[in-house]
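Bumping my old thread because nobody answered last time. Still need a sequence for this structure:
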């Protein structure tokens, strides 16, 4: 399958899954899974920075439209995408990647992929929940919501990796 078609299909599936199923899951007001971040996590290694930020912008804007959260998902997703190259440099050695290859459980191994995903999901969720509350008076509750949502999102990401992406 063509790489750009594969990226488009992944975008549509993750947005639809997020909007129609995962946005309706709220465990006690503390756990909100955001699996759509998997789209940014799995963009190809060699994607130019401008394209990474542009796709993240479109993804965040699309989620904001469906969730009626003006700019919060957009800002958190773009910040996560902005941090992605630094996290990749931190965790992987400088090496040549096959064209079209992307970070996944199969290509990075469990420990490296988990650390990569954990750091970026932490960045996304913390910034998203801090933007949502936008005050420090509820910082403990905000950090608890962020942490619990992050753990649930990580569980979904690892399950998705084992189900769909271990072959790459």
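Sorry it took so long. Here it is:
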């Amino acid at each position: 399958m063509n790489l750009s078609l594969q990226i488009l299909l992944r975008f549509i599936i993750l947005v639809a899954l997020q909007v129609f199923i995962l946005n309706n899951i709220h465990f006690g007001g503390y756990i909100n899974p955001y699996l759509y971040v998997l789209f940014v996590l799995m963009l190809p290694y060699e994607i130019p920075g401008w394209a990474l930020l542009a796709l993240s912008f479109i993804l965040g804007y699309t989620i904001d439209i469906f969730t009626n959260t003006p700019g919060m998902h957009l800002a958190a997703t773009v910040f996560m995408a902005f941090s992605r190259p630094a996290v990749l440099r931190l965790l992987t050695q400088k090496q040549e990647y096959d064209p079209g290859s992307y970070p996944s459980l199969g290509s990075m191994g469990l420990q490296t992929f988990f650390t990569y995903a954990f750091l970026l999901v932490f960045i996304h969720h913390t910034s998203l929940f801090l933007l949502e509350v936008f005050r420090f008076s509820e910082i403990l509750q905000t950090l608890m919501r962020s942490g619990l949502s992050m753990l649930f999102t990580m569980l979904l990401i690892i399950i998705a990796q084992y189900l769909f992406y271990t072959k790459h």
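The chain has seven helices and no strands. Let me know if any region looks off to you.
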